[in-house]
Amino acid sequence: MKQRLQRLWWATLGLILFAPSLSLAAGGGGAPIVIVADTRKLDGIMTWWANLYNESHVQFAVLTIIIIPVTGVIFGVLADIVMGWIGIDLKSRELAEH
């Protein structure tokens, strides 16, 4: 019984290790996938953004990493201004717990 379980274990391990190579052999060699943005129906800044993605993924990533925090700061400041206008003051509040 122990020998059968050991054979089953090694067969399963071999299948797990060699399954990717078997699937590549069946499909013809794993052709590279090209991912691009469709710019046919875009205009303005959306066309520029899609073309940036198509031309350089590194520049697209760096610009995205810069834009997201800047946008968060802008929205945070605007929310603080709007809350100040409607009477919510978060800068000088007293805690209710004593």
Task: Write structural notes for this entry.
There is one protein chain. The protein is mainly alpha-helical and 98 residues long. It folds into two domains: 1-33; 34-98, no CATH class. It is 67% helix and 0% strand. Helix 2 (45-55) packs antiparallel against helix 3. The longest helix is centred in the last third of the chain and has 29 residues, at 57-85.
Question: Quick one: biggest sheet?
Answer: none
Query: What global shape is seen?
Result: flat
SSE order, as H and E?
HHH
Helix content: 55-70%
Please state the average pLDDT score.
84
The domain tally reads 2
Please report the distance between the alpha carbons of the first and last residues. 70 Å
- Measured on Cα atoms, how large is the radius of gyration? 28 Å
Q: Low-confidence parts lasting 5 or more residues at pLDDT below 50?
A: none
Strand content: under 5%
Give the structural class: mainly alpha
Q: What oligomeric state do the depicted chains represent?
A: single chain
Counting DSSP E segments of at least 2 residues, the number of strands comes to 0
Specify the number of helices.
3
Brief summary:
By secondary structure, this protein is mainly alpha-helical.
How are the SSEs ordered, and which strands pair?
Blueprint: H1 2-27, H2 45-55, H3 57-85
Task: List its traits.
single chain, 98 residues, mainly alpha, 2 domains
